[in-house]
Amino acid sequence: MTSLCPSNEAAWTELDRRLDSWAKQVMRGTPMSKDERLDIFGGRKGKNKKVLSEFIDEVERREGKKPV
Fold first, then answer.
1. What's the superkingdom here (predicted)?
2. What confidence category does residue 52 fall into, taking pLDDT thresholds of 50, 70 and 90?
3. Inter-residue contact 5 to 11 (CB < 8 Å)
4. What are the φ and ψ backbone dihedral angles of 3, each rounded to 5 degrees?
C-alpha cells in the first residue's frame, strides 16, 4: 500500500479509513453494498471508483443480477 500513497502517514490513514468502513459493515451484519465496496476498494481518494463501479456492474450483468 505504501507504493500507492505518498508517505507512510498517508498509507496508515488510508488503511484506517478502509478498516473503519469494513468494520462498520461487519458490525451491521448485512452484505456489503456497492457503495461500501467502492468506498473500501475504490482507491485512495476514490480515484479508482469509476472503473471499479463499471467492473461490478459488468459482473452483476453477467451473473444475471442486473438487467442490461
1. Eukaryota
2. very high
3. yes
4. -70, -20
